[in-house]
Design a protein that fits this description.
Elements (H helix, E strand, L loop, with lengths): L6 H53 L11 E6 L8 H4 L4 E7 L2 E10 L2 E8 L1 H48 L18 H49 L6 H27 L12 E2 H11 L8 E8 L4 E2 L3 H17 L3 E8 L3 E6 L27 H12 L2 E7 L3 E7 L16
Parallel strand pairs: 6-8
Antiparallel strand pairs: 1-4, 2-3, 3-4, 5-7, 8-9, 9-11, 10-11
């Protein structure tokens, strides 16, 4: 189980636990040693007192035994009944006994047939042990607190370079390849981490430059043959001698070339590092929708599908028309392709475009995956269409929500949120 807290607090907790463990170990050892020393001292004192009394008893059997508020002395002769029963079977040495409800240390020594027993009330000893436990407990708490404070301070000193590194990394821009991080840190583990970051940034920068150069070069190189294909198809379509089958094939070639040209333009625009480069002077969404519908009518041939276009607002967006065309064309093309009967309704309002169809729908488990790159659709086809839609929406800050029931149709809402290419939001929702 991972502890989800900051490294500083984990170090502090470690220091606190370490301080507690060490102090508990020392406290336990001190307590055991103190109790053992007190028992030894008590045994030596009682033994000395009892030996002194036995020596005086040899001289004068009437000599007074040691007596005080905490001690008692018994002389146990064979058959003696006046001594408490618990004391009669004690062997020589030090014992702890309960007499009349009170706890005593009992020192027993034998002299001939007599047994001399000296009792010492251990109430004061137990009171001292209790006080000693309290002092040790307070010591453990103080030690734990001081360890935590020390750990917190030390962790702050040790982790501060890591925090500084994180701050510098967070403030980096993709083009800041010439500003190394390692020069701001000493030659320790954090400095090593900074140097590894620098190495990774250099590799990442070189990769991005190669990718952008490749995309730009390929896009530029493809434009010429695509322009040739489009020009050739226009010439062929102007030939009135073409029969219907050949004209249909040429129209298909023209559409494919036009779509490929738009895709190449979109990839070139998206390959640019500065997002401001993909802002346009203005794109009329209503006119663009009409063009897209006309260009995709071939998908509805031999289908009993009605198309309704509802223009509620003359919306103009400050975006590249090519990119907006790719987004709308992909969404409308999918609606036409997967609808065999019924209708496809397209509504443009001030806030966005709504596309509603009565097609085959999307399984609930696949709704969150349809924008993944190379996602395989119900027909088994795969491609970059919807993943490219996702990238464009992220760049402009647009939001796409999907509500679909399998076998009953799909409703897609493309919301034109305020264009913010620096903080684009892309969302998908399911019913």
């Amino acid at each position: 189980m991972k502890i989800k807290t900051s490294l500083r607090y984990r170090v502090t907790l470690t220091f606190a636990l370490l301080g507690m463990g060490v102090s508990l170990g020392l406290a336990g050892a001190l307590y055991v040693l103190a109790v053992d020393m007190e028992e030894r001292l008590t045994a030596e004192t009682l033994s000395a007192e009892l030996e002194d009394y036995i020596a005086r008893y040899e001289v004068d059997p009437e000599a007074p035994p040691p007596a005080s508020t905490t001690t008692r002395t018994y002389v146990l002769a064979p058959g003696e009944k006046r001594v408490p029963a618990i004391l009669r079977g004690l062997e020589t040495g030090l014992h702890q006994v309960q007499v009349e409800g009170r706890s005593y240390y009992a020192e027993v020594q034998a002299y001939g047939e007599l047994y001399f027993i000296l009792l010492y009330d251990d109430k004061q000893s137990r009171h001292r042990e209790y006080q000693f436990k309290i002092f040790l407990g307070i010591g453990v708490l103080v030690m734990t607190f001081l360890s935590a404070v020390l750990g917190f301070w030390l962790a702050g000193r040790v982790i501060s370079p890591v925090g500084e590194l994180a701050t510098r990394v967070a403030s980096l821009r993709p083009e800041d390849y010439s500003e190394p991080l390692a020069e701001h840190f000493s030659h320790d583990e954090v400095g090593l981490l900074a140097r590894k970051f620098d190495d990774y940034r250099q590799r990442l920068g070189a990769f991005i430059e190669r990718e952008q150069a490749f995309t730009a070069d390929v896009s530029h190189e493809l434009r010429t043959p695509l322009a040739v294909i489009e020009g050739a198809t226009e010439v062929l379509l102007d030939d009135h001698g073409l029969d219907a089958p050949r004209r249909s094939r040429v129209e298909r070639i023209a559409r494919a070339a036009r779509e490929m040209s738009e895709l190449v333009t979109a990839l070139l625009l998206l390959a640019r590092e500065e997002n401001s480069d993909i802002s346009g002077s203005g794109c009329a969404v209503d006119k663009l929708l009409q063009q897209i519908l006309e260009g995709h009518q071939h998908l509805l041939r031999q289908k009993s599908v009605g198309v309704r276009l509802d223009i509620q607002s003359q919306t103009t967006l400050p975006v590249e028309c090519t990119l907006l065309s790719i987004v709308l064309a992909n969404l409308i093309r999918n609606a036409f392709y997967y609808t065999e009967q019924g209708h496809v309704s397209i509504c443009l309002d001030e806030e966005g475009v709504t596309i509603n169809d009565t097609g085959i729908g999307i399984p609930e488990k696949n709704i969150q995956r349809i924008f993944d790159r190379y996602y395989t659709g119900p027909s088994g086809s795969e491609g970059i269409g919807l993943s490219l839609v996702k990238r464009i929406c992220q760049c402009y800050g647009w939001n796409i929500s999907i509500d679909s029931l399998e076998g009953r149709g799909t409703l897609i809402r493309l919301a034109f949120l305020p264009a913010s290419v620096e903080s684009g939001v892309f969302a998908e929702s399911s019913p």
